[in-house]
Structure formats: structure tokens, C-alpha cells
Amino acid sequence: MKAAPQLQGPTRLLLAPALVVLALLTGLAAGAPSADAAQPATAATSATAATNATTATRATTATSVSTIAEALRKNPVYVDPAARSQLSVADAADLSRQIKDADKPLFLAVLPAGYPTRNLFNDLRTATGITGLYAIRLGADFDARADSAVLSRAAVHNLVGSVKGESDTKTQLGDFTDRALTNMGGSAPFTWGSSDGGGVSTAALVTVGAVLLAGGAGAYTLVRRNRRRHEEEQRAALEELRVVVDEDITAFGEELDRLDFHPAEAGADDAMRADYERALDAYDRAKSAMAQAGKPEDVRAVTESLADGRFSLAALAARREGRPLPDRRPPCFFDPRHGPSVADATWTPPGGTSREVPVCAADRTRLADGRDPMVREVDTVYGRRPYWEAGPAYGPWAGGYFGGGLLPGLLIGTMLGGMMATPAYAADYGSGYGDFGAAGYEGGDLSGADFNSDDFGGGFGGGDFGGGDFGGGGDFGGGF
What we know:
The chain is of the alpha/beta class. Helices cover 50% and strands 8% of the residues. Helix 10 (270-292) runs antiparallel to helix 11 and helix 11 packs parallel to helix 13. Residues 1-11, 28-60, 194-199, 432-441 and 462-480 have low confidence and may be disordered.
């Protein structure tokens, strides 16, 4: 028996909505409740209300984590009854609306001072069961945690630090929300959808289905046209990026030429020869990957290879000079051609917030002396600009150098960082960096307790950035 042919590509996508409409119509016809059937539901509702009222009278002083989690599953902002003086109902509603409109899995909770903080973030994330970014205003203190699939630890650290000095709850949560929505990934959980129970008439569904079917041919033509335009835009972005990548490859090749190392020279051992071989292989991989690149996100493999090659040269140099082998660190943030970084230094971009960035020895000295670092500039429509102020195609280029979730925190508040956080960027260029992978962001999914507890570890103010329970310190400095 011949298998039924499968629908492919746009045709399958266009027919899917019509099939959904037909399924809804079938459900309405088969499962419409009668007037008699509605009476038990009313009684059940009354019983539930009575149970809730009884439960409320037995509520303890500290609202349970389960109660907070249940509220956050339905709405992105929770204000504890004991903390209502910190944030008005109207202000909470405005924040909730902003988060829902942005379609991001950001959860805000306002709790009273003295609320138990031990393992608070970890327990709340477990009880909620939703991948996302969780921020808590507890009395006058503030902290946040996130799944690495949504926002890296470095990015969370920088975001929290940027609002740490704001004492007013409304201002602090508003600023945090603005900045977080710009930089985080993921999408809002479906549990935030409407729960009003309102129905849709059969006539409306039939009308929608007819419109979908009638417009299928026109939509198919539009899809093909948009696809061609998208491919043209991708090719143009790749050609713009090719100039910068070729400069990187050439610069690394020149480093190999200046190396003055021969595998058979006196004093060369197997470890040195292995370092040298890895550097040559990285150079060849970079050239091959660039020759085969068909879209901007393919460039990540090129810069990853160049970063590997430069580290191999740094290890070779240490062996030849009898120095300890260097730790594997990301390249210099200001210009990856400077080679592997030697330390992290505090840097504040114009109009932005301070953050820790990996720097080479020369740029570390410049910053310590109060001078500007040697920044990699590229051509843009506005002239020569730092790469982090260039177009979205530079995301994969930078991601190859600064993978592992580091890049989002480094680029907070920059033009490129803002672009990389948008759904359009994930669709056009892939996420291009770090933990998020090439398929774009995750987040907002119901993952239950299946998450990396290291991202939420410790109590309030503890875990990744601070020490111990509430009142710790660590990187936040003072407080918690």
C-alpha cells in the first residue's frame, strides 16, 4: 500500500491553521455543555470559594513559596499582602502589562522585609517550574537569578548591579524590567494566557476558517517573496561581515609567519610541536569555514577556530620561554586580535553601566592609566564604529570569540546587545553566542524541576554571586 504523500514547507504551514479551526469546530459540536450540566459547576465554584476563604483565615504570616509560585504562573508580577505599601496595584499592573507585551519570561516578586531567604530562588524556581528570569524585591533589598538559557549569570549580575542603588521599589523594578526585557531571551509561558473562560462563537470560527482557506494562495505567494528577500538580506550581511573576518584570518596568518618556530629546532619537544600543529590546524579550519559560509551565523565557526589557534600560540610561547602555561581565557574584549585575555577589568561604555570584561595585558595597562583601550572598529553607515555598535551580523562573529554565555553580560546596554535579544535577531542570525545555541533562545517552557540549580543556588543574595544566606556579600558588595 502506497504511503500518503506528506505536505512540505509553506503548504503544510498554511493548512495547519485551517486544521486547527476544524478541530475546534468538532470540539464545540461534541462537547458543548447543557444548561443542566452548568449547575454542578456553579456549586463546585461556590465550594472552591468557601475552601479558599477558609484557607485564607489560616494563612501564616509568611506567604508560602508555593502560593507565590502559583501566582507567578498566572501573572508575571506578585506583590505580597504584607508588602502592598511598596508597590501599588496600578504600578504592578503596568509592570505586568509591559512584561506580557514584551513576551518574555520575567517574574517579579515584592516580599516584605524579614521573609525567609534560605534557598528562596531555588525553591521558587522549582515550585514555579518555568524557565525564566526571577527577580525579588525583599524589603529594601533586591536580587535576581535566571536559567542560563534565558540570561547568563554575568548578565544577571550586571543587571542587578545597575539598579542596586535605587531605593524606590517602583523605580527599581521599572528600570530592571526595562533593561532585562532588552537583554534576555525566551518567550512568555502560555500559563499567562487569558483564563476568563469566554467562548468563541461557532459562526466566528467558521468565518475565520473560510478567510484562512480563501487567503491561502495569496499567503503562499507572499511567503515565497519574503523568503527570497530574506536570502538576499542574509547574503548582503555576510558580504559586509566577510571584510572583517578576512582581516582576522590574515592577522592570524601573519602571527604564524612571525612565530620563528620550526618543529625540528633545538629545544623543541612534543608538547611544543603539538601546540604549533593545533595553531596551524586552526588557521586551516578558519579559512575553510569562511570559504563555505553561506549566512552570517556560519561565521561563528571561523572565529571559534581563530580563538583556539591564538590560545595554542600563547601556550607555545609559554613553553619556549619556560613560563607556566596560561589558563584558557576568552580573547581581549576590545579586539580579539590582541589574543587571549590575561585578566578581567572594569570598563564603563559611554552612557552605559560598568561591567567586567576580559582584557589583554596592553589594554589592562591603558585602563589602569585612565586611557582608552585599543578598540576594534568596523565600517558602518555612520562611519567607523566599535564592533559592538555595528549591525546584527556581528553577533555570530563576536559569539565565536566569547562563547559559553559570556557575551550577553558583556554587551548589556550596547546596540549589538539590544539587537541580539530580539526575536528577529534569533530568527535571522541565530543567537550566535554562548549557552543559547544557534537555534535561538529557550525559556518560558514548563520544565518543572529540571533545571541547573547552580543558576539559582543559595539563598537570597547567595548562590552564584554572593555568599551564604541573606546578609552575605561576595560580588555585590555589602548588604547581601
